[in-house]
């Protein structure tokens, strides 16, 4: 019998091409969880406590929900620690780092850094993104994105210069190099709403392009895309999460992200966040853990490269762990 023909042999049968081969078994879930729980940023170097993962994207794309989903996967209950919003205005007002813990309460070796996100019509200066990558603690309280040159007043310009100089002095005085290594981001995640990609505002698209350039300039920080709300752009996925690996609608969105922003397919992970669920479903966990493992492993390779190139000094005197 011809394998390429559908039931009844009425015409050619095309099995939808898989986006990514996914093993949905409980065993795979346990393996993925173990890989993430055992992760250390740099083997044999306990100065390196945590690897920071920076979440960037539009307000409402699902960044805070991602923090909640990942917290829930390890906590074995649905957590809503990171405040998620249903309006167009962000409730994540500042840059916030979330320490993820296992169900036994031990700190895992990575942190998710939730950002306010870009709003429709807003322009974020690249210096602001650069500071987010650097994870400067000072900015945690003040990382409200600012507007670019055209709308910046002279006063704002000199104020920024003064604060920049103060930050430089602080670093120089306190030799806070180790603060930097534990605060910096070693992987960046672009959070994109799959259901509204076709109407993504121009400023948001430009923001992603600027970010990509900046990551290249920063020794090629690894980049991953989390394509959220896959359930909102495909009824098939809404009914059965497993359809995410072959559904043509999802494949189309992935292709669009590749074309628009120049990502490779293996950098893009379609996901669905937990929203009202009481427990995290196995399929949800597998999708997120696959993405998370990729972020951690790529981040670790990046850290090794930085150490080899002497771009970070893990033995700097005066180091202190954050
Ligand atoms: N259907 C669906 N809704 C989602 C998903 N992720 C987030 N949302 C909803 O999108 C809205 C914005 O989410 P939020 O996490 O606050 O976005 P943030 O502004 O990027 O932090 C909230 O109403 C969420 O419930 C998802 O995967 N599927
Ligand atoms: Mg948020």
TrEMBL record:
<dbReference type="Pfam" id="PF01926">
    <property type="entry name" value="MMR_HSR1"/>
</dbReference>
<feature type="domain" description="G">
    <location>
        <begin position="53"/>
        <end position="122"/>
    </location>
</feature>
<protein>
    <recommendedName>
        <fullName>G domain-containing protein</fullName>
    </recommendedName>
</protein>
<dbReference type="InterPro" id="IPR006073">
    <property type="entry name" value="GTP-bd"/>
</dbReference>
<dbReference type="InterPro" id="IPR027417">
    <property type="entry name" value="P-loop_NTPase"/>
</dbReference>
